[in-house]
Give the backbone structure.
Amino acid sequence: MLVGAAATLAAAERTILAIGAHAGDMEVSAGAVLARHARLGDRVVLLHLTLGEGGNPKLSAAEYGEQKRREAVAAAKLLGAEVRFGPYADARIPRGDAPARFVADAICTVKPIHIITHWKNSIHRDHSLTYTIVTDAVLLAAVNGCASVRGVWYAENWEDQEGFQPYTYVDVTQDFELWRKAATAYEFIRGGISKFPYLEYYESLARIRGALSGTRYAVAFDIDPERKRQVLKSLP
């Protein structure tokens, strides 16, 4: 499970909200952690701001969007999660206050203790915008009296590598096979749409993070720099 302050919370108190730019982003990068928390009795919610419907050159956006929605529902069911969908089109998430208000409303409704989302730097516009939207939404939710969020965790995504530094490692060995089943509910992860080997990449990454953390499989997260500050009365 998540470490630090999160480890002191009873399972019944925890809701995990994973916010991705596209259906599939959070499942492939952090799905094993979501499966773990669901198994531990936590409530897990996925929020996809878009379906990512523009990513299949063989189908229209409408056709692929319908497919991605079905895949997202199937993946969430396997992970033991709820799933919600945003109103935005792939590669057209708007700038400004409206998307932040939409996510803030979701935060006030779901009341998560932890949020998992994209790192701030990405080669994909939707990913970096999602980071900004979530940051603004957490503040808006707090201003509106929905101060449930204790931590925001940034998932490791192959498109979001600039400046990402693994800080927290979560042992997902027990949940790795379930993650694989959930992730491959998506055709683009199974292969055949993109030339990028999604499944092999994230399987290998989990093994590398596991090796570095003394486990079989692990998922790594970064956090905001100010949360890395520790105040100790003496060295541990």
About this structure: The first helix runs from residue 25 to 39.
